[in-house]
Design goal:
This protein has about 290 residues and is of the alpha/beta class. It contains 11 helices and 13 strands. The strands form 4 sheets. It has a 7-stranded mixed beta sheet. The protein has a two-stranded antiparallel sheet with strand order 2-3. The protein has a two-stranded antiparallel sheet with strand order 7-13. The longest helix is centred in the C-terminal third of the chain and has 18 residues, at about 230-245. Belongs to the glucose-1-phosphate thymidylyltransferase family.
């Protein structure tokens, strides 16, 4: 399985902050927003990652992540010329994906929970063994603002709607998806919506029509933030700060994950930590390298 992280868009919901800075580089507490979805991919053991980015931000992404070899990974980039919708990312990634299955994440979604990686791994295994698509549902009090999923007691999806006026459930579809390889061809057949975008909901609707769409719920004990709004951005940062200060452990620390995965050794970890030595982030990495 390969991963796609959609990190383009114009970030208009965070204006005027994002008029000159891509939102994915803004800090969620002590690290860039984009570290968090990348860390989830790494925790799943996926080394091959493609970032979908704006033309103006390509070089900045390359300065931040390079080719990924310093993390034991293979990182590539594709340009999305305009924000034409989430489904377009699947089309742009066709050559990168090849014949593999797909883990698709939105770059501004932050997730946290004790069994999160276990649940994601179960979805990944299901797709690899049986194909189809998996979406994730999170209970919200204002479902009309989101894509909403309705499902039965076995997790089979009955309906999925984008920002419905009369939601059939309170479960929003969050920015994390697992697809088999057919998603690319499905995305190619998607017609632009009323707002002129290729909607990811249309891809999910086609899987539903085929009887191949399932949902996993992120219940109590999980946190999800769509950090593309001012309030959610602030809440995500405060949440991460609280967890890290209470536990002494970092969320979304990509160097630590690479090290614990065995993708880099202690000497490589030390090299990554040295330029950051004056920061708490760097000190954390140095302590990790010197404690084992």
């Amino acid at each position: 399985m390969k991963a796609i992280i959609l990190a383009g868009g114009s970030g208009t919901r965070l204006y005027p902050v994002t008029m000159t800075v891509n939102k994915h580089f803004l800090p969620i507490y002590n690290k860039p927003m984009i570290y968090y979805p990348l860390s989830l991919v790494m925790l799943l053991g996926i080394k091959n990652v493609l970032f979908i980015v704006n033309p103006t931000d390509l070089e900045t992404f390359k300065r931040l992540f390079r080719d990924g070899s310093h993390l034991g990974m293979n990182i590539k980039y594709r340009i999305q010329e305009k924000p034409n919708g989430l489904a377009e990312g699947l089309i742009l990634a066709e050559d990168f994906i090849g014949n593999d299955n797909i883990c698709y994440l939105l770059g501004d979604n932050i997730f946290y929970g004790h069994d999160l990686v276990k649940i994601m791994a179960e979805a990944k295994k299901e797709i690899e063994e049986k194909g189809g698509a998996y979406v994730f549902g999170y209970y919200v009090k204002d479902p009309e603002r989101f894509g909403v999923v309705e499902f039965d007691e076995k997790g089979n999806v009955k309906s999925i709607e984008e920002k419905p006026k009369k939601p059939k459930s309170n479960y929003a579809v969050v920015g994390m998806y697992f697809y088999d390889n057919e998603a690319i061809e499905i995305a190619k057949r998607v017609k632009p919506s009323d707002r002129g975008e290729l909607e990811i909901t249309s891809v999910n609707e086609e899987y539903l029509r085929r009887g191949k769409l399932k949902v996993k719920l992120l219940g109590r004990g999980f946190a999800w933030f769509d950090a593309g709004t001012h309030d959610s951005f602030l809440e995500a940062g405060e949440f991460v700060a609280t967890i890290e200060k209470k536990t002494g452990l970092m969320i979304g620390c990509i160097e630590e994950i690479a090290y614990r995965n065995g993708w880099i050794d202690r000497e490589q970890l030390l090299e990554l930590a040295k330029p950051l030595a004056k920061t708490d982030y760097g000190k954390y990495l140095l302590e990790l390298a010197n404690s084992e």
